[in-house]
Amino acid sequence: MAEERGGDIVSEFLSQNPHLENWVQSLRGPCETNKQWHARREFVLRNMEVFPSIKPGVPSPSLDRLLSLSMVWANHVFLGCRYPQPVMDKVHEMAEGITVIEAPVRKTRDEIMGKTKRPALSAVDADSQSKKAKPTDTDVKAHARSVGRPAASALKSGPPPGAPAEHQPFFNRLYKAVAWKLVSAGGFGPNLEHFEILRSCVESCKAGLTCVFVPLKDIPDLPTGCTQKEGQVCELRCCTVYMGTGYGRDEAAARAMASKEALKVFQGQKVTVKVCRRRFQGQDVDDLVLLDEQSRSQVLPPALSYPFQEHQ
């Protein structure tokens, strides 16, 4: 649905159901752009009838599930995230009839480098395109961004002015949520389900985690002398803010390690969103990074994704 037409449909629906307007607006994430929110709002409103037990203003498992599915769909459309195939099929079915105007289209590294071995798969599926061409991979993957070298004008943009201050209130709330969750789990330790803890805390704050996976062998900015080439690397972001990177033999192990690294940041007295320099596609870029209060020198791993490029 084009944004203007979708806006007309949603506006008409809300004018007929004015009791929903303030409630649905309260579901907006603090870091969502207008385009992202308008699309996700329509997803939520269109699918309320699928969850008849949902009552506006009343927390419930059904509402939590609907909001989680809406975040999965929005992350897929706007950030190129992939999830297990049954989940992807479910959100595509729920989003039928919703079209996002000028949605980002992404390519794999081989396609960008001119080594195309298979037809390009769009990470954005605006008009039920996924039902005609389903990806063969059922795991969480984000081949959304090339890890090769960028075009000359690809990295002109960066975090908007004042972005750290805008994001800080959200991460203050997330800090409290993580603190309570870890207390109930008996404290931070190596045997926790780190990803599940982080995911549940983020979702309780009405946001979602973005997981980007890249094979280790495809990363060009590895330290000199690194001989390990097998395995996967996972980068975690929330609301475009970088939280952690992890390596593992497969995607689940890499995601668990990245979540563990992210939770370490919450072990101090506070967390702070700052602009830091990182390597991305062979260039130094400004990135939003979540840090603890320690004033030590930060050696950050190369970025696997960069949500501040001009075309986004």
> What's the alpha carbon Rg, rounded to whole Å?
20 Å
Structural class: alpha+beta
What is the H/E string?
Answer: HHHHHHHHEEEHEE
The percent range for strand residues is 5-15%
Characterization of this structure:
With 312 residues, the protein is α+β, with helices and mostly antiparallel strands. It is 36% helix and 13% strand. The protein has nine helices and five strands, in the order H-H-H-H-H-H-H-H-E-E-E-H-E-E. It has helices spanning 3-16, 21-25, 34-46, 61-79, 85-94, 109-112, 163-184, 194-204, 251-264; strands at 209-215, 232-238, 241-248, 271-280, 283-292. Residues 1-6 and 111-154 have low confidence and may be disordered. It is globular and about 55 Å long. Helix 1 (3-16) crosses helix 3. The strands form two sheets. It has a three-stranded antiparallel beta sheet with strand order 1-2-3. The chain has a two-stranded antiparallel sheet with strand order 4-5. Belongs to the CARF family. Residues 117-163 are annotated as: Disordered.
Topology at a glance:
Layout: H1 3-16, H2 21-25, H3 34-46, H4 61-79, H5 85-94, H6 109-112, H7 163-184, H8 194-204, E1 209-215, E2 232-238, E3 241-248, H9 251-264, E4 271-280, E5 283-292
Antiparallel strand pairs: 1-2, 2-3, 4-5
Helix pairs in contact: 1-3, 3-4, 4-5, 7-8
Organism: Cyprinus carpio carpio
GO cellular component, one term: nucleoplasm
InterPro entries: DSRM_CARF/NKRF (IPR058828), XTBD (IPR021859)
In short:
Belongs to the CARF family. By secondary structure, the protein is of the alpha+beta class. 36% of the residues lie in helices and 13% in strands.
